[in-house]
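user: can you give me the structure for this one chain? tokens are fine.
assistant: on it. calling the predictor now.
[tool input]
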Amino acid sequence: MIGQKIQELRKNKRMSLSEVAEQAGVAKSYLSSIERGIQSNPSIQFMEKIGKVLGVTVNELLLSQDDQAIRAQLDEDWLKLAEEAMRSGISKKEFQEFVEFSKWKKSH
């Protein structure tokens, strides 16, 4: 998934594998193995270097197309609410439990 995303971004920028590897300061062979799915778990540092060259953040590299479509549908208020919950220390599990409780409460 990450490799395909990197390759797609690279091709959209009309950059060769060699150009991206050189500008990012990573081995061309390693970048190639990521793009082809031979290696599938690149480090954050690697993704930061590649992202900088391709003009995207690490988060953008990690998001799938489905995730991006969902994010596009979220309005700014929902994003702010989620960010506020994260900053306040609410875990995903706690948030999920709240949602489930709210569904249960509405049905009774």
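assistant: here you go. DSSP finds eight helices and no strands in the chain. The helical segments are 2-12, 17-24, 28-35, 44-54, 58-62, 65-73, 76-87, 92-107.
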